[in-house]
Amino acid sequence: MTTTESDTNPREASSLPALEVRGVRKTFEAELAPVRALRGVDLTVERGTFVALMGPSGCGKSTLLNLIAGLEEVDEGSIDVAGESMSEGSEDDHALIRRKHIGIVFQFFNLLEGMTVLENVALPAIIAGRNRKSAETRSRDLLDLLGIGDKASVMPGVLSGGQRQRLAIARALANEPTLLLADEPTGALDSAGGQEVIELMSRLHAAGQTIILVTHDANVAAAADTVLLMRDGRILDGTGSAIGSDAPATTIGTL
To answer: What whole-number distance in Å separates Cα of residue 58 and Cα of residue 220?
Structure first.
């Protein structure tokens, strides 16, 4: 039985790893043949660490992130985020865990263009039950922290690419997540905007934020504590061998 935060006191819950992935497999049906996206992934990420996942297109990086976030269902295995299961329960259960523990940064921002910058950041906190005044105070603090506090009242469309990604990161941090997931966060940016995001991720990590970042760019990955390579739906060890359910799990943060 998976331990949940409701089963433990806050001190015990805070000592649990940010992420535990065990024997996770995922296959997608395709016209010609099934695509085995993940083939037995094992991974533990301790709190306060910064992990970059690298690998060729189609190796399973984004699929793994989507499963961790509860945006897709695992076929086999288990995923626990801060001790709460993302591989059991209903979609509503996963949504509650996501609101409490996970912030997501997408490559193409996924901003609400009809809302102001401030409203974009405040909305997740309001949905999670925080009153509007508190949510907006938290949002202004985040916008100031990320260097776009002066843009609070404008629409996202007037922002530069780097500013739009800063806004997306602020929104992902609105509920003070245990785990920040970033899927190619520099992929839609020019070199200057990409450098802004790299520096920002490093600052967030220095402040204690746990981050898992998917990237094709070795310069982006270099900002992380640990770089993990993926190939053919598996995480590789330092020798290029696959790590999976029949091999020792990868633990990040205690090495």
So the answer is: 19
> Residue 15's CB: how many other CB atoms inside 10 A?
11
Average pLDDT over residues 138-161: 94
| pLDDT reading at 188 higher than 60 | yes
**Domain segments of the chain: what residues?**
47-73+90-237
- In this predicted structure, the answer to whether residue 5 has a pLDDT above a threshold of 60 is no
Q: What is the bridge-based pairing of β-strands 76-81 and 35-45?
A: unpaired
pLDDT tens digits, one per residue of 41-62: 999 999 999 999 999 888 999 9
**Residue 133 corresponds to which amino acid?**
K
Q: Which of 46, 16, 17, 21 shows the shortest CA–CA distance to 230? A: 21
Which CATH architecture fits 47-73+90-237? 3-Layer(aba) Sandwich (3.40)
